[in-house]
Specification:
Elements: E1 3-4, H1 6-12, H2 15-21, E2 28-29, E3 34-36, E4 49-52, E5 57-60, E6 66-68, H3 69-77, H4 81-91, E7 98-99
Antiparallel strand pairs: 1-7, 2-3, 3-4, 4-5, 5-6
Helix pairs in contact: 2-3, 3-4
Length: 102
């Protein structure tokens, strides 16, 4: 089975793409990014989830989860990283960047 070039997936898929797929509705926008309710359903403030669009990173100040766009999708969909990358590429109509092993 070929491997996936995860760096290429992260370059092709933005955090904004993932937020659009989960229909994230921010309550506040600023120059650094977006704030809103945590998509993991934690019981914090409606501004605890921060999405930093320039760096494709997120962090919830309530449940203390954070990471990149691919990790967010994997956690929300309860998928392994490999399967999450495949799923995202399929949903966004992106060719899966494969690493062919010798």
């Amino acid at each position: 089975m070929p491997g996936i070039d995860f760096a290429a997936v992260r370059a092709a898929v933005s955090l904004q793409d993932v937020l659009n797929l989960i229909e994230f509705r921010p309550v506040r926008r600023n120059q650094r990014g977006l704030r809103g309710s945590c998509p993991f359903g934690c019981d914090g403030s409606p501004r605890d989830f921060a999405a930093y669009l320039e760096t494709n990173r997120y962090y919830c100040f309530s449940c203390r989860r954070g990471g990149n766009q691919l990790e967010l999708w994997a956690r929300l969909q309860r998928l392994r990283l490999y399967d999450a990358a495949l799923d995202l590429c399929q949903r966004l109509h992106i060719e899966v960047p494969l690493i062919h092993r010798w």
